[in-house]
Design a protein that fits this description.
The protein folds into two domains: 1-194 and 278-453, Beta-lactamase, CATH 3.40.710; 195-277, Up-down Bundle (Methane Monooxygenase Hydroxylase, Chain G, domain 1). Helices cover 31% and strands 13% of the residues. It contains 16 helices and 17 strands. Helix 6 packs parallel to helix 11 and helix 6 (172-186) packs across helix 14 (359-367).
């Protein structure tokens, strides 16, 4: 999902026009995957051309006017500015920290395998082989780490990112929220069969009220909510205005926080009938978690995982006007720390003999969700997949599962290969369909290679 921290309602028409232009650019980029050589004019700026350092965003004291990026401007997260923004959210807006605590760092052993860059695969729907190294730039990758048996075998950075910076995780955030929810279910602190209204009475008259916690966790709720960024009248813009910490216009009558917005969501269809990927499920789960534990997702994530896993960097969430973390897409963290999350998932929640995550929580996620419900959502690039606990489950022969972000962010866990891939990216196309064809087969190629090591 786009960050929800978008301009207030008075700027929505302008933002909608800009996003329609972005969507046109995105369509051109997807077409390039199969376009003939003469279609060069359709291509957006390349990864090298759009590199934030090459474009000089926010350089100078002060930067030149044409190089300034402000949150209050409607284009702060449009391409190519987004390639700078994904590493700088905390300079643009208020945030809530996820502290790494005072414990020791947990360093990875390193054994860099340069052969990985030369591994080849054929993109989905393509005919020409591509190398793993080529895919790095094709997907506008800002950083990629690979662990094999807990050893760091690949690490590469570009764009705005290096090993000292945090980067926006986008909808990988949802999987962290889902993991916290599954932990509380496994510990008996939340009954996943309970109706949401019994835990958060304020949602009783909303669409969430008669849904179960499990239906929220698996996104099988029936909600009247559009997340079509190309439509300036889509519900996501009202949601964005509610979540924005910027001052509202004097005549603003809409919701002023995430919590306020969630209370307004109407029901559409039946709960449990089909998978429907809607970010507001994650924020509803964030509210449930906060109500049950008395702690925000930022505080709980720090206490339960981040401060105990030997993280290298603090992390953070953007917040709304009352300090509520954006549980559906706001998490920002260091890349190696995201790989640590993947390694914990691979190792059953145990680090150095200490259990950080209940085994039952990870077992539930790895088992997957309702394939039939998922199929109704029509993801042609993900046949046979499912979704549960806000994680994407491949059900392939290796039992791979992943967290996914719209601009190419990922945590990919392959148990058979004992492999974890963590990636941050800033693809100009606002859709995983743009990077899946050159990502999923690339991950599989590395897994096949590592299984032979």
């Amino acid at each position: 999902m786009f960050p929800r921290l978008l301009p207030p309602a008075t700027m929505r028409p302008l933002q909608g026009l800009r996003l329609r232009a972005t969507a046109t650019l995105a369509a051109g980029a997807i077409a390039v995957l199969s376009a003939p050589a003469g279609a060069e004019a359709q291509r957006p700026m390349s990864a090298a051309q759009s590199d934030p350092a090459a474009l000089g965003w926010m350089v100078g004291a002060p930067p030149p006017a044409e190089k300034i990026i402000r949150f209050s401007d409607g284009d702060y997260f449009t391409f190519p500015k987004l390639r700078w923004t994904v590493c700088h959210f905390r300079e643009l807006m208020p945030t809530a920290g996820v502290g790494r605590g005072l414990g020791p760092l947990h360093f990875f052993d390193r054994k860099i395998d340069d052969a990985i860059n030369a591994l080849t695969f054929v993109p989905i729907g393509g005919v020409r082989p591509m190398t793993f190294g080529e895919a790095f730039d094709v997907n506008y990758t800002d950083g990629l780490v690979i662990l094999h048996k807990g050893v760091l075998v690949y690490e590469r950075y570009a764009g705005c990112l290096d090993e000292t910076r945090q980067h926006a995780a986008m909808s990988v955030t949802k999987s962290l929220t889902g993991l916290l929810g599954e932990m509380l279910v496994a510990e008996g602190k939340i009954d996943d069969k309970a109706k949401v209204a019994t835990l958060v009475p304020e949602l009783a008259t909303s669409a969430f009220g008669d849904a179960t916690v499990r239906q929220v966790l698996d996104m099988t709720t029936g909600l009247h909510y559009s997340e079509d960024y190309s439509d300036p009248d889509a519900d996501v813009w009202a949601y964005s205005a509610a979540g924005s910490p910027l001052p509202k216009p004097a005549d603003f009558q809409g919701p002023r926080s995430y919590f306020d917005y969630l209370k307004t969501v109407k029901k559409e269809g039946q709960h449990g009938a089909a998978f429907g990927y809607k970010t507001i499920n994650s924020d509803a789960l964030g509210w449930i978690i906060a109500r049950v534990t008395g702690k925000s997702v930022a505080t709980l994530l720090s206490e339960r995982i981040w401060s105990r896993m030997g993280a290298e960097l603090d992390a953070y969430y953007p917040v709304d006007s009352i300090g509520t973390p954006f549980a559906g897409g706001g998490f920002n963290a260091g890349l190696r720390d995201m790989a640590r999350i993947g390694q914990l998932m691979l190792d059953g929640g145990v680090l150095d003999g200490e259990r950080l995550i209940p085994e039952a929580a990870i077992a539930h996620i790895r088992a997957g969700g309702d394939k039939a419900a998922f199929a109704k959502a029509d993801y042609p690039l993900l046949p046979g997949w499912s979704y549960t606990g806000m994680w994407w489950i491949s059900h392939n022969a290796d039992g791979a599962f992943m967290a996914r972000g719209v601009h190419g962010q990922a945590i990919y866990v392959d148990p058979a290969a004992q492999m974890v891939i963590a990636r941050f990216a800033s693809n100009p196309v606002t859709s995983n369909a743009a990077n899946d064809p050159t990502s999923l087969p690339a991950y599989a190629a590395v897994a096949d290679y590592l299984k032979g090591k």
